[in-house]
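To whoever picks this up:

The parser on our side crashed when reading a file containing two proteins. I've narrowed it down to the boundary between the first structure block and the second sequence. Both blocks are reproduced below exactly, byte for byte. First block:
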Amino acid sequence: MAIIRPSADLRNHYKEISELCKSSNEPIYITVNGKEDTALVSASLIDELYQTIRLMRMINQGLNDIQEGQTMTLEEVKKQLL
């Protein structure tokens, strides 16, 4: 379930919202005039999301390399390393 808070809460209840970000590990959606405007997430969650994105990009690159035939055997890799 989405956590939604009005923008005034950022000013008036920042510590509570900060703790909620950390404890829920979910985005907190901030509204302005009743409409979604911004999402807040904890620093640890954003780090996790960026790590996931980087991993997905590396996996995608590997899959593209396989599709394009850009692969090497284990023996070819060993020869390049030695």
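<<boundary where parser fails>>
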Amino acid sequence: MAKAQKSGALLRERVEHQHARVSYVELFFDLVFVFAITQISHTLLEHFSGVGLAQVAFLLCAVWWVWVYTSWATNWLDPETTPVRLLLFVLMFLGLVLSGSLPEAFGERGLAFAAAYAAMQLIRSLFTMLSFKDASRTNYRNFQRITIWLGISGLFWIAGGLSAGPLRFGLWLIALAIEFAGPAAGFHVPGLGRSRTSDWDVEGGHLAERCALFIIIALGESILMTGATAAKLPVDAVNLTAFLNAFVSSVAMWWIYFHIGAERGSHVIAHSDDPGRIARIAYTYFHIPLVAGIILVAVGDELVIGHPLGHTDAKTAIAVAGGPACYLLGNLLFKRATAGRFQLSHLVGLGLIAVLAFCPALLPPLGFSLTATAILILVAAWEAISLRPRLQEA
């Protein structure tokens, strides 16, 4: 993830002050992850427990990690060249295997999941490393380090796939921890040194757009999930209210991220002297709670639409309150990294969600969810109104 010193046959041409567009083949590649997000949501619905939450959180981190590493790579690789397109098609196939294995990743399909994941990481890294061999010594060395880190983590992925039960989960946690630590440690390798964020000269606008599109994927899956559930129910006032509430919550989440934050983040990273630092923290790490929040909100909406009245059980309360909390936390951290301050509206929203979390016994599921949606609307409106003068001055 470093700066190319000269053009390579498979590398994007960088034009100063010009935003590199997201290609059609990158969007095509993302379709696999629509399937992956759907699989994760349905897995959580079917296994909503302490262990299930931990496993689904782990699977989400793995899915995000393999996707975001690919987005970093295509920030340098040119998807309009045939070899890079073929690479993405191979990764898509492996991604389908990975996505199809998600519901049984901790069961019968553990080895398929682990093998597909490790293969995606290593194939892409080796390809990118070779693409830089004659174009950038710095970047070539950087991807040598990355490949070594991924090779080590791959051993734990495969060992976990060959194991079972808690041992599998433990080995996979080690594998993912290695990969998560890599960027923070500069992929340090004895004898090869470490990378600096100043070496990771990403095209910021492109990476910001790629991550924003993943948020759209997650929101789109949420709408599909709730729409499919609502379509099976009779049309009455309660069901219509639950369906409208689910839709409005999706709109509020879109507004909180895209109305100001996404565009401002793209501008900041595109004009930064150290875009690699912002890309690492704001887009690589801080987008994980954003996606987790959207998935939890979708699961909560599904539960509320299915059972809008009566007692609010613990499962529904966790999803309905935990989803907005994760989403607001992710936005708070993302905007802190790109705007340099914590948004008061988000802090207040998190405080209100914390209060709501102690009140499930006082409200039926629909009332509980309507309150959570109202908090998201409040945050969206507060931020939009409070920042309007600054946007007009800019």
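After patching the parser it read the second block fine. Residues 107 and 219 are 28 Å apart (CA to CA). Confidence is low (pLDDT under 50) at residues 1-6.
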